[in-house]
Amino acid sequence: MSTSLFLKSILNIDYLKSTFNSLASNPISSSETFVYGTSGFRMHNEKLDIPLFATCLITFLRTLYCGEFIGIMITASHNPPQDNGFKTIEPKGEMLPQSWEKYVTSIANSVKEDQFDTFLNTFFVIASEALKDVDIYNKDIKIIVGRDTRESSYRLVTFCKQFFNSVVKIFQKSVNFIDYGVVTTPQLHFIVRKHTLLKQSNKYDLPKEYFNEFFQPFINILNKSTHSKFKKLYIDCANGVGAVQLNQLKESFKNKTDKLEIELINTDYKDFSKLNVDCGADFVKTNQKLPQGVSPALAMNPENLFCSLDGDADRIIFYALDENSNFCLLDGDRMATLIGEYFIKKTPKNFWEDIKLGIVQTAYANGNSTSYITEELKLDVKCAKTGVKNLHHDAVENFDVGIYFEANGHGTVIFNDLFITKLKQENLTELSLFVNLINQAVGDAITDMFVIVAILIHLDINAKTWFSKYTDLPNRLVKCVVPDRTQFKTFDFERQLSKPEGLQDSINQIVSAPNSSKKTRSFVRASGTEDVVRIYAESSSMESVDAVITEVLKAIEDATT
Ligand code: 16G
Ligand code: MG
């Protein structure tokens, strides 16, 4: 039987038709062009009904294709409270394969056809191509959903539930739909992976599983430690889902260790309007200042450690104030270099002779962090395109132990069996305990926090010493609205533009002007999450950075008008 015929025989076409009709006639979203990008679909929540319908349809195809659980995470991460979004999660915790992004994008955009029959036909053509050569006939439909704390998230999850309860004709296929409620994005990745690897079809006690896996090893490390440099960890939860999850952790923390005190700030997730406002990882990184709820006096005390999560707790930023009240940002570059240094310090010299340890960054990594990696740590460094999936891929491809972080705080460490075997052979107990903390599936603010705190404890240093490892080049990231950002095409891992024609030559001239420092660098790329282009510049002084930005902005204007 052909894919189309098979799908026709199992799908509840009446349900699809009535849903299509109500969506296609909705004036709010029918004028939009949808793109499933680096972080799935993300926009004002009122425009999301069509993208959600498309996401449910693609998830349906994907679970038929894989015969395993596929996850849908409902979140818009660090975006403002009125936005929302979703992305799908693969059986082993990865993102949707790039080759499928165009399918979901086309499905979403074809809901605007005014005829259901034309839409259905498009859907069958896409399904036939996507499911080509795969046995889909004996596979069940298995879905896991989770959501962040946004006001609109419950409505969106209700749509998913309705969709999967209705999309298949009764008795044609079994549908297993599990709703994990309010969870962090990395927790949903973890749980989908766990269901797949352990072939589990019933709902887990997620907090228990997650905290046993990562939290208990952290407590073990703390209780064995004799560290002395800091006493209290302040965690800014961005008034989002991190607060829900960490509240539970805080209680058990008190009972299990007296080696570190935890204090949660910005935990008011019940007031929807506060999510990510004046707090959270993105706020701290972008504004380079303390979040709401942390006073300068508190931040200057070296016995305190500070970090901020973003709204769905998949990225983290640490920070401190020095004795002169200067803001010290400990971002993704700093975490990657600290982890690299730790691996080197805790292993004998010959350990890395037959095992490759390296770091993956993006073009946004500060130039001085890259120099520190190559010149001081003497490690390999690779540049990847923006988007964690690109860094993850390059870390797996290039290294046995691959540390990857975007400057904005997204990242983790991955390692293979070669490394684990050698770790056991060499009897490196401290490092063996440490690697248990790592969530290899995906960058995870909570487990990254454990990883960084464990390193600071093992090296017995505080945030100030960590910050003193190298000095960042002054830099700035700005955005600029252009008539059509899709005209901006990059190469060389986004460090150069091939289009608009001539713009790269202008940027080259600006950064190599006679009085410019050798360290001056600037690049322009179209954002994948907002309708803007981003301009990054770094140089030896802030004046020079600002001069470069001003000139690049002018060059962009000349090239686009
Ligand atoms: C998304 C990506 C993040 C990237 C950011 C870039 C994931 C889970 N998130 O948030 O990795 O840094 O987009 O945004 O992939 P931009 O394209 O707007 O600069
Ligand atoms: Mg996020």
From TrEMBL:
Cofactors required: Mg(2+)
Taxonomic superkingdom: Eukaryota
Residues annotated for Mg(2+) binding in this entry: 77, 310, 312, 314
Cofactor descriptive note: Binds 1 Mg(2+) ion per subunit.
Matching SUPFAM superfamilies: Phosphoglucomutase, C-terminal domain, Phosphoglucomutase, first 3 domains
Annotated TM spans: none
Keywords on record: Isomerase, Magnesium, Metal-binding, Phosphoprotein
Gene Ontology biological-process annotations: carbohydrate metabolic process; chitin biosynthetic process; UDP-N-acetylglucosamine biosynthetic process
Keyword Phosphoprotein appears in the UniProt entry: yes
Positions of the Alpha-D-phosphohexomutase alpha/beta/alpha domain: 70-113, 124-196
Pathway membership, UniProt: Nucleotide-sugar biosynthesis; UDP-N-acetyl-alpha-D-glucosamine biosynthesis; N-acetyl-alpha-D-glucosamine 1-phosphate from alpha-D-glucosamine 6-phosphate (route I): step 2/2
Gene Ontology MF: a single term: magnesium ion binding
Annotated binding of substrate, by residue: 406-408, 525-529, 534
Active site (UniProt): 77 (phosphoserine intermediate)
Catalytic activity: N-acetyl-alpha-D-glucosamine 1-phosphate = N-acetyl-D-glucosamine 6-phosphate
Summary of the function given for this chain in its UniProt record: Catalyzes the conversion of GlcNAc-6-P into GlcNAc-1-P during the synthesis of uridine diphosphate/UDP-GlcNAc, which is a biosynthetic precursor of chitin and also supplies the amino sugars for N-linked oligosaccharides of glycoproteins.
Family of the protein in this entry: Belongs to the phosphohexose mutase family.
PANTHER family in UniProt: PHOSPHOACETYLGLUCOSAMINE MUTASE (PTHR45955:SF1)
Protein name: Phosphoacetylglucosamine mutase
Record organism: Hanseniaspora guilliermondii
